[in-house]
Amino acid sequence: MKRLEAAFEHVLFTSRWLMAPVYFGLVLAMVLLLVKFGKEIVHLFSNIGTASGGDLIIGVLSLVDIALIMNLLIIIMFSGYENFVSKMEDLHSHRDRPDWMGHIGFSDLKIKLFGSIVAISGIELLKGFMNVANLSDRHLAWMVGIHLTFLFSGLLYAAMDRLAGKGH
Fold this sequence. Notes:
- The chain has helices spanning 2-14, 20-46, 53-84, 106-130, 137-163.
- Helix 2 (20-46) runs antiparallel to helix 3 and helix 4 (106-130) runs antiparallel to helix 5.
- The radius of gyration is 21 Å and the shape is extended.
- The mean pLDDT is 87.
- It has five helices and no strands.
- Helix content is 74%, strand content 0%.
- It is mainly alpha-helical.
């Protein structure tokens, strides 16, 4: 019975590697976002002569949005891989290794995720306000409501995390 238990635990422990393709899929998602970023840059430069100031601001906000999402993916990939799959031992002495790598726990990851979602939602809301003439009041109300929902959810999670003694 003890050997069966040990074998089962070994299978459970090894199953963490099933997450590795998920993290690689996030790398592929970053490639897609990079293509989208490139298309947006080309669009901005090709319309520079005819675009209004508001159109340029919306375009730049779209670029910032993509950058925030890509940064979030990097945090998720690195911390998720190190927390749930394997330590990146060979990279500990790499001079370009981010200081936060290996120090973001699951709770910290969720806080960063909420923060990024709120920031992305805020940028989308700002883009909506820049384009207010083309949006209905109902659409804007939904955007504000969704943003406030993300904001309050993030604040409540951070408060619960702090009350549980896991906050810094």
